[in-house]
Amino acid sequence: MTNEKFLSSNSGRLFVSELITSQPPRIIDTNRVIIVEEGSTAEIICLAQGYPEPTYTWYKNADLISDRIITESSSSTLSGLMSNNYLIPRFRILTNSILIEKVNQNDAGLYRCIVNNSIGSELAETQLIVRCK
């Protein structure tokens, strides 16, 4: 090292970021109760932060909601709609929320969101109430 100092003819940028340490998931946005009219669309939100990034698991009452399509003929109340002989899911899992289209009375219930990472987990519950038209 020479300890010489030079003034740069070019400008530069310095980015400073916070040191990220492992943190358990923490739910930062959710709804405790959602009231919707039958036939409308409902969105159940469960927004969490943590490091490593948390994963989400969803339940309706005691039933696991997964990415697979569940039809009316199954034992679950989660269903799809038939259109041109294709099953269109009414339930869409969008990582930190569930979108339910054409809500009906069978969709009412207690929805649980569990966020989890290698440090810990947290739970949020949302009661979905469906009002008749």
What does this structure look like?
- The protein is mainly β and 133 residues long.
- The chain has one domain: Sandwich (Immunoglobulin-like).
- The chain has no helices and eleven strands.
- The chain has strands at 23-30, 33-37, 42-51, 55-60, 63-65, 80-83, 86-89, 91-93, 97-100, 109-116, 121-131.
- Strands 2-11-10-4-5 form a five-stranded mixed β-sheet, with no helix packed on it. Strands 1-3-9-8 form a four-stranded antiparallel β-sheet, with no helix packed on it. Strands 6-7 form a two-stranded antiparallel sheet.
- Mean pLDDT is 81; it is low at 68-78 and 81-86.
- Residues 25-129 form the Ig-like domain.
- It is found in: Membrane.
- One of its GO terms (molecular function) is cell-cell adhesion mediator activity.
Attribute tags:
mainly beta; 4-stranded antiparallel sheet; about 50% strand; about 130 residues; Immunoglobulin-like; single chain
In short:
Helices cover 0% and strands 50% of the residues. The protein is built from no helices and eleven strands. The strands form three sheets. It has a five-stranded mixed β-sheet, with no helix packed on it.
Tally of DSSP β-strands: 11
The helix count comes to 0
Going by CATH, the architecture would be: Sandwich
If you consult CATH, what is the topology?
Immunoglobulin-like
Instruction: Indicate the radius of gyration in whole angstroms.
Output: 23 Å
Low-confidence stretches: 68-78, 81-86
User: Into which percentage range does the β-strand content fall?
Assistant: over 45%
What's the helix-strand series?
EEEEEEEEEEE
Query: Describe the biggest sheet?
Result: 5 strands, mixed
Which class of secondary structure composition applies to the elements? mainly beta
Q: What best-fitting shape do the alpha-carbon axes yield? A: elongated
Q: CA-to-CA gap between the ends?
A: 79 Å
Helix content: under 10%
Domain Ig-like: 25-129
Organism: Euroglyphus maynei
Pfam family, one: Ig_3
Protein name: Ig-like domain-containing protein
